[in-house]
Design a protein that fits this description.
Elements: H1 6-58, H2 60-69, E1 73-77, E2 83-87, H3 88-95, H4 104-129, H5 134-149, H6 152-161, H7 167-171, H8 175-178
Antiparallel strand pairs: 1-2
Length: 190
């Protein structure tokens, strides 16, 4: 029988220990790389969310709709260059379906809310695909969703008829919307 030389045993031992150390280092590096990729993804999600919100706020129609939600009365420059004072009650009347008027101010209100709901639909799409997180797009939408919740049935009917199918899903992410009474309060603004 051949005897194993002690140096051969020591070499095997060094090889096994070295292999275990190398494997441990490789696993640690893989974990570090994974963490860095997660941080990079999160950074990209936050940037995409910021860009979406900024785009909504920069959109003339969407920003005017936000102003309308936040005001009892305000003067606006309509598409034809004329100015009109639009009240909260006029906003609600313009969004009732079927439309009772095709007056310039009513059409303007509907166009502005179409722009806003377009962005809300985009937010929901980006949330579903994982390109952003809810925290990335929650503000300032949460503030305005509280106003929308005051007349929830009106807005639900409007987005349904306008076929903004994912807007109700986006709005349902907000407790103020989910908890809103199912009947229209038309209580005015805060």
């Amino acid at each position: 029988m051949n005897q194993v030389h002690p140096l051969q045993v020591a070499a095997w031992f060094v090889a096994v220990v070295g292999g275990l150390i190398a494997a441990g280092i490789a696993l640690w590096q893989a974990a570090q790389n994974h963490q860095q990729r997660e941080k990079d993804l999160r950074w990209k999600q936050a940037a995409a969310g910021r860009d979406l919100v900024d785009e909504m706020l920069d959109d003339e129609g969407a920003s005017v709709a936000l102003d309308m939600l936040d005001s009892d009365e305000r003067e606006y420059e309509l598409d034809d260059g004329a100015s009109a004072t639009i009240t909260a009650e006029q906003v609600l009347a313009a969004l009732k379906l079927p439309p009772k008027s095709d007056a310039d101010d009513c059409v303007y209100v509907r166009e502005c809310f179409d722009a806003l709901f377009y962005y809300f639909a985009r937010f929901e799409h980006f949330l579903k695909t994982g390109l952003v997180t809810f925290e990335d797009v929650r503000e300032p939408a949460e503030y305005y969703v509280e106003y929308l919740a005051e007349d929830k049935p009106l807005y639900l009917k409007y987005v349904e008829v306008a076929r903004f199918r994912s807007v109700p899903e986006f709005l349902d992410r907000f407790p103020s919307w989910r908890d809103a009474a199912p009947v229209s309060s038309s209580s005015g603004r805060r």
